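Honest question from a wet-lab person: if I give you the sequences of every part of a complex, can you actually get the arrangement of the whole thing, not just the pieces? Trying it with mine:
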Amino acid sequence: MWSISTDFMESLMAPPDPVLEAVLRSADEAGLPRIYLSPLQARMLQVLAGVIGARRILEIGTLAGYSGIHLARALPDDGKLITLEIDDKHADVAQANFECAGVAGKVELRRGPALESLQAMDGQLPEPFDMVFIDADKVNNANYLRWAAEHCRSGALIVIDNVVRGGQVATGSDEDPAVAGTRAALRLAAGDERLQATVLQVVGRKGFDGLCFIRVR
Ligand code: SAH
Ligand code: DHB
Ligand code: MG
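Yes, you can. This is the full assembly:
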């Protein structure tokens, strides 16, 4: 039932888009993993970025640029998406896709381990971020969230992908680094009084997973 419902909702809310179809084709042709956001999730980020009037967005984990194009489309002409990617092959595919999508002027793709890129941005930001999307190596989720919370304006939105992992984040062992890193991020989101957070659990094509939404007070 949920897959029929997904088809119905996608047909309405995420109708065929030649640019996005080309992005997914390019990702497959380059042999990239199919771990981008679902169409409905990507649209949700786009809607939220519009709601908060985001002008400066940070994304950690670019892959082929699928979520990034949605975020960039929500930005005003003078807005900026900084997106971080460790894998040069992914970054090459993403850069070409940002150009095809006509958003390259708003997107700055920074290569290398995200923690290093974040460190390099310390003290160099002209303005804090309005929105941060965390979707890279899960072991560093708490580190990414800590950095994001410190570099966001009041009222900003931070979103973390894959916080449920088929229930593993609730039931799995802390010896699994992805579980431990994600649990640490959720505990930080819940326990820091500067943050107000919730989790939306989702079932879809990628199985049972979820997104954490955090408002910076
Ligand atoms: N946000 C994308 C999907 C990202 S998949 C979308 O929905 O379209 C996760 C990406 O994070 C992969 O491309 C992977 O190479 C990248 N990644 C993994 N570890 C990283 C790190 N330490 N620093 C930066 N990027 C990393
Ligand atoms: C994986 C990573 C993701 O960001 C995702 O959304 C799904 C799967 C992974 O590393 O397997
Ligand atoms: Mg993800």
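Two things worth pointing out. The first strand starts at residue 56 and ends at 60. The mean pLDDT is 97.
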